[in-house]
């Protein structure tokens, strides 16, 4: 923690104390990106929906290592929310975000307006056929279509060489990698590890919704992943047994309702029955009204 | 015609007789594009499926006016053909295409392999919700999804500043413009007028399929558009009457079978009943087994 803060101060001084810049129009962002590219600078991009937490800041610190100009976007993207979801109430605090982004050496915040991003007669979507038919895609139809579409748009606007995504949203990361490969975006995608609270809860802007009692229950997601890791280390290879044990553990905690607990192939997301190599264990649990997700890679010994 | 040839010779000499270059891999094409962009060059791009004719060459001559580096692609794109359509038999002649492209001053032909363009597990598509629900989209489901997807891919590979599309494929042009706007491709789209045979038949690689007798019938597409233009000039404003007259004319010619004859808004492609301003008249007709399309803008006087 102390080291992190020292590095942040160093980054700030290295930037000559230069103020972070906020760009709000697509045209201006594209012109600036062209300018940086023409002068040989490498652009690194971290897309966010704002309300930044340590998890986002870790992506940005990571991003600083990959290039010259670090751009983040702050945009709560309507097309990735379902009609019953929390688009309207999603937490927003731009001034706080700006300060936090500045503290880790972000050069530019791209914060566009909804009207410019989704103009009249907007009708073009980027979608994947298979990867969204798993995990969160099953209970959030059109969510990943919204994600793939906004990320494509942001890639065309910010024109990055490198873009950083968190492993906490593992399915999103896999989908973005596939989309980049399929549509030939000339962009390197870097995944970054999940940042956790002291009790293991994965950082998320939505943790903010939890009551103190729900917050205590929420650590069960991480606990049940640890439980599975332990069982695998002890020799368990039957995915069904691991899933049942994790599910029973989650159900034993108040305020929880399981959406899914899955063990699957880390690339295709197809279900796995017997664990013969590294697999993804992913889960989504409602704690009170708040839907939380988490995941880990389970590695049997010798892999 | 003579003037055109003289201009082509001039272009060739201006290029210092430099040979056209053929690039076949995605990686190489992207690296070259980056290099041109870094040195401040403007890239102009004309996507084609090859078997070039005067219509394509007109797009390329047009393209030469818009920038420094003129790239064309030659790729018969499988995802825009329906299962009953002519993907396998679509005419191909790379050597002839290379000579023709060179004659109009093309710098680079990008000719990728199918396997590299659509790798294993390919699953990402770009699609539009409304514009394909008209005209050719009705009898060719998924055609425009295939077009939007391949054009997105080619844009990400060739990285052009400007791209030229023919007005003969009018719905395609409107769809590409909308896609560029919606996904924020930083690319200027230029439409270029249809090039016609002496009897008015719009140039198309598929004209090649016509028997001599069918070829004579094929001029009815252009004739029926001219008929409508004349009626509008004489004061007709009722779209239904214009469509009926054109349809009757087409049916009077042997070997023809109408897919559609439509009068619609040139931007939204929504049907128009009364002609109050410029409208698009578009038609698709099977002549023998060959499906041909054509269109024109009908302008009432004073518009």
Brief overview:
The structure is a homodimer of 303-residue chains. The first copy, chain A, has helices at residues 2-14, 26-38, 54-64, 94-103, 114-117, 135-139, 143-158, 170-183, 212-217, 220-233, 239-251; strands at residues 21-23, 43-48, 69-74, 108-110, 124-128, 162-166, 188-192, 256-264, 279-287, 290-298.
Question: Within the CATH hierarchy, at the fold level, what is the topology of the largest domain in chain A?
Answer: Rossmann fold
Q: Greatest contact pair?
A: A-B, 34 and 34 residues
Number of H- or I-type helical stretches of chain A: 11
CATH class designation of the largest domain in chain A:
Alpha Beta
Oligomer classification:
homodimer
Spatially, the strands of the biggest sheet of chain A line up as: 1-4-3-2-6-7
